[in-house]
């Protein structure tokens, strides 16, 4: 069996759809691992714990994700909700890392 999933347009069975979703989920988790690596770097670089939470940056990141989603023709509100959780989780992780590095 081919390990490369079919494109959504070429799927004709639910098994093919699920294989594509599962493959994409593995890729998304790998990308998230890289993103959290950047959060570790930010925790290492920021000398002040108060700098971890930056509401202006958070708003900018979420707005950019919503705009990119809408440009791709997918629901911006859904992506905005996902990015809200992603950014808040990233901030929490960065706080944990900031404290861990300095203990």
TrEMBL record:
InterPro entries: Chorismate_II_sf, Chorismate_mutase-related, CM_dom_sf, CM_II_prokaryot, Isochorismate_pyruvate-lyase. SMART domains: CM_2. Its EC number is 5.4.99.5. Substrate binds at residues 18, 35, 46, 94. Pfam families: CM_2 (PF01817). Keywords: Isomerase, Lyase, Pyruvate. This is chorismate mutase. It comes from Erythrobacter sanguineus. The lineage of its organism: Bacteria, Pseudomonadati, Pseudomonadota, Alphaproteobacteria, Sphingomonadales.
